[in-house]
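Re-running the complex after MR caught last week's input typo. The corrected sequence lines follow. Everything else is unchanged.
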Amino acid sequence: MTEPSKLPHHGVPEHQPAAGGIAARARAAAGPQYLNGLNPEQREAVETLDGPVLVLAGAGTGKTRVLTTRIAHILSQGRARPHEILSVTFTNKAAREMKLRLGQMLGQAVEGMPWLGTFHSIGGRILRIHAELVQLKSNFTVLDVDDQVRLLKQLLQAENIDDKRWPARMLAGLIDGWKNRGLAPSQVPSGEAAMFGNGKGGKLYASYQERLKILNAADFGDLLLENIRLFRENPDVLRQYQNRFKFILVDEYQDTNVAQYLWLRLLSQAPSRPGVPLSAIIPGAAGTTVIPGRIEDANPDVQSHIEESGDNEESLRDSGSALSAHPGMTETATPTASSPPKNICCVGDDDQSIYGWRGAEVDNILRFEHDFPGAKVIRLERNYRSTGHILAAASHLIAHNEGRLGKTLRTEDVDGEKVTVTGSWDSEEEARAIGEEIEELQRAGENLNDVAILVRASFQMREFEDRFVTLGLPYRVIGGPRFYERAEIRDALAYLRVINSPADDLAFERIVNVPKRGLGDATVQLLHDHARKRRMPLFEAARAVVETDELKPKARGALRDLILQFDRWRAQREVTAHTELAEIVLDESGYTEMWQKDRSADAAGRLDNLKELVRSMEEFENLQGFLEHISLVMDRDGDASDEAVSLMTLHSAKGLEFDNVFLPGWEEGLFPSQRTLDEQGRAGLEEERRLAHVGLTRARRRAKLYFATNRRIHGTWSTTIPSRFLDELPSANVEITESKGGSGWGGAGGYGPSRFDNVESFGSSYTTPGWQRAQANRNRSQGGRSGQARGGFEESQSSFSGGFSRNKRGPIVIEGELVAKSTGTVSEFSLADRVFHQKFGYGHVVKIDGNKLTIAFEKAGEKKVVDSFVERV
DNA sequence: CATATATTTATTTTT
DNA sequence: TAAATATATG
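Corrected-run output:
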């Protein structure tokens, strides 16, 4: 592969062989100083460089430290150069953290770790290099959910599917799920695909993918899925990467989904060489089932994919590969032929797997030893974070889960304060109580930066915000809506996207009429019709239509102006810095003005955000580079400067720690979230429990739990009962306290929902939850339709045989043909043809100019129209 | 075509 | 409850 390595080879010794022998041992014992202070397990995790390693790192056991030290170790041992290490994390936050820590450990060498990043950013990066092999151009856009949904809506419309009954959002979710499982359109189980849109789910997925190619776009899932396809279809490309990455490190392995797993598997296989038995590479062939429990019934999807990648590997095998060991590598550095150099190290904690709903497969971590035979499993169980009581509570709670690898966290810290549980009358009182306790902590000299409130669902934050505002307590919301998800940012980006890639219909559509230019639905619809018929981008369609009389003069003028503006901006792009260009665009388009005129409360904030956006562009070399990264790595700007309480969801708290952690809302239905229970049943409950475990283990010194008896769910108040998780805490480490919020709960004996108490005790749940679950599932699988299952079934069958909707659209055309068609075709009309036009009626052709016709209409007079709008009669 | 008003409907977690 | 969407009106 020719990808230039942009890294300065920063003081990484290329010579010294890392002889695995006595010399190395001796040196290690003396110890490079970065090894100092590691406990024996950590040290083992760092120093076991060869072969697969799974590090089971419980909360607060120094996971990140192990990862970064391991990288430092690899580098300083000369086992690989920075660009030969693939290091993937799940979140940008984690990637940043690792870069930071590595930087501290190694000086500036972090610049030289080009392959340290999230799955998605690395996937995207590889994809851009080989874009043409997956029918994209290297400047493809990454679509966000909004774009996706808009696109799907159009497809649903084209298929004549009622988007009330089959919402685009739902389809987006389905497709995302398929992509998470590594399924291309042809691989989706047909039964599953047929469940959406009267059997059209699969077809919709396929045409969605087609559209993405035409739009030169990829969605999040594609960043991985298309990568997998790239590797499967181009063994030589795969081999380049297999050769390149001498070491692979994976953070939060418990959160990987099937696609990520497959991707890792492909990369972690040895660069193919003759003589490696297939069974050494393909886990399925080995038949060694190491792990107990539910791992046995492994996901069939995974199985089939493993086999596929096996085939792939086999086809690779014959072509000998030049294993280009770099100068510093000795024989011992490269494992023997019988054991491929799968130097993959995955770090994770099955007890912190909380992204199952996003397709994460806990099985991936549970099955590691099976997938990577000969793997070394190292457990990190010494917790350096929490005090005794907190750790005991967390451990005891998580012990209620089955299907875990099992770790016992221990600490040498003092017992500290007990975990407290506080009940309050309603959620307002809960917020009041927490507010007071925080003020108390503040008075006692606690730093507010060491205080966090972790909620299950983001709607809970509101009450705290309200309360803190009235108290004047500084707080900061972490992980709210992402910066680039704000409307104004996306509008601005849309302008830049259209400049950068004129075929970006979604971006164009977003801003044609923002600010208002008199180009409403009707105009856009017209452009769509033309674009579809002519198989051209909307922008081009607009260019054509402006030349005609299709539009009313007003709209036509506005559209012409817009096109001219874009032409001008595109020209300016060559001579103007991208930041300056952005300012010009925002100004000349009237976008800034639109917000300046807006007198609503948040208009000023939006203008600030726009400034912030322009400022953030400075970090990038050019517009292209900026656009490539924006959707992947832009997240909220934490002004961590001021002292403030942190307010966030449990999910976004993973990986963080605080002295004082407040955990409100421990109520049935909210904390074991009813929805998760309904959808995932037992597995869902266990995931919720892991979430609780994550919450507790964020705390260093104080963990405080709360529940309220009354909570407003959506508009209406409802009575709730304390979470079952509270019952699962060990009483020895917990203290029940009175709410300090004043009135309410203790006094009123009228806390009367005792009739619910017996309904919901653990396990005895067939009456309410079970029934609800069944119902919810039924509704869900039928796409939320209200009728009985049978009715829906018949309906979908009938429309199958009818083949009704195909006519509307004509045959699906493959991209190659589209391109051919859209460039310079000769009109199929001849002079004097009699034609019909929807709006202008009958007439005859008097002039032909490419696809533009001049027609003398009988009623409307002479008009210029586009040929796609008239038909010969 | 744009705006104001009525109605509906959905409410987790995120790369 | 509030946000998002449909409908009526200018």
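None of the earlier attempt is carried over here. The radius of gyration of chain A is 30 Å. Residues 114 and 860 of chain A are 63 Å apart (CA to CA).
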